[in-house]
């Protein structure tokens, strides 16, 4: 029996900073030792661990704004961004915004007609949701992207930004070069290692903080399966 779950474990790309995230093998060992394992709790623990390490005050330079980008466009990142932002908001006192998270249509209306904070939807004491900036047919220039991220920095102490797929657009790289770093999102079902390595080479000038592996499958111990 297999169950799908999101893991914030390191995928093992050569040169990735392994100190940032916990390894998948260690997580799997922990699963087999827990009698009350649940996918939801496992995911929450992984996200909490990611937040505490990526936003650790020990990092130099400190991280306040990060970009999430998938290797391929089929991999969804907006929901991951929102979950990370929720976990971060629970850990810090400063204001947190997640930009580009999937929201209800009415949650972030008029983002381009008002200032960023005024148009964002406050969902918790220190957590806001902001609509992704509208892009025309010709896209946005690097200068425009950097100005947009600078605006976000002025309005919020912490920001989690959902960017287009790094393998399909230069926009993600331009955003990550201005932000404090990028987290690559890979799919255990869809991402080919050769493709991930190629994207990593493309992002040589970007501070890669780590990777998130989604769509991961691992066996559920028989004793736990009987209790589900």
Which overall shape is indicated by the principal axes computed on the Cα atoms? globular
According to DSSP, the number of beta strands is 8
Average pLDDT, all residues:
76
Rg: 18 Å
CATH class: Alpha Beta
CATH architecture: 3-Layer(aba) Sandwich
Give the termini distance in whole angstroms: 12 Å
Class inferred from helices and paired strands: alpha/beta
Total of DSSP H or I helical runs spanning 4+ residues: 8
Task: Name the helix and strand elements from N-terminus to C-terminus, one letter apiece.
Answer: EHHEHEHEEHEHEHEH
Largest sheet: 8 strands, mixed
State the CATH topology.
Rossmann fold
Strand content: 15-25%
The helix fraction, in percent, is 25-40%
Supply the CATH superfamily name.
P-loop containing nucleotide triphosphate hydrolases
Low-confidence stretches: 1-29, 103-112, 224-228
Number of domains: 1
Short description:
The chain is of the alpha/beta class and 228 residues long. It has 8 helices and 8 strands; from the N terminus they run βααβαβαββαβαβαβα.
């Amino acid at each position: 029996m297999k169950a799908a779950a999101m893991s914030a474990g390191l995928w093992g790309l050569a040169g990735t900073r392994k100190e940032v995230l916990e390894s998948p093998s260690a997580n799997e060992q922990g699963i087999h030792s827990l009698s009350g394992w649940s996918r939801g709790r496992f995911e929450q623990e992984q996200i909490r661990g990611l937040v505490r390490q990526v936003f650790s005050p020990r990092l130099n330079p400190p991280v306040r704004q990060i970009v999430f980008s998938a290797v391929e466009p089929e991999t969804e990142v907006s929901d991951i961004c929102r979950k990370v932002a929720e976990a971060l908001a629970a850990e810090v006192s400063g204001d947190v915004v997640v930009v580009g998270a999937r929201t209800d249509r009415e949650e972030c209306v008029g983002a381009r007609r008002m200032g960023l904070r005024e148009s964002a939807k406050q969902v918790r004491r220190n957590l806001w949701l902001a609509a992704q900036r509208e892009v025309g047919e010709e896209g946005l220039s690097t200068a425009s992207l950097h100005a947009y991220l600078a605006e976000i920095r002025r309005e919020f102490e912490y920001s989690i930004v959902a960017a287009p797929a790094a393998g399909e657009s230069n926009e993600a790289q331009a955003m990550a070069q201005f932000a404090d770093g990028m987290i690559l999102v890979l799919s255990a079902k869809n991402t080919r290692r050769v493709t991930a390595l190629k994207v990593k080479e493309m992002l040589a000038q970007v501070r890669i903080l780590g990777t998130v592996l989604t769509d991961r499958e691992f066996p559920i111990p028989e004793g736990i399966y009987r209790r589900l």
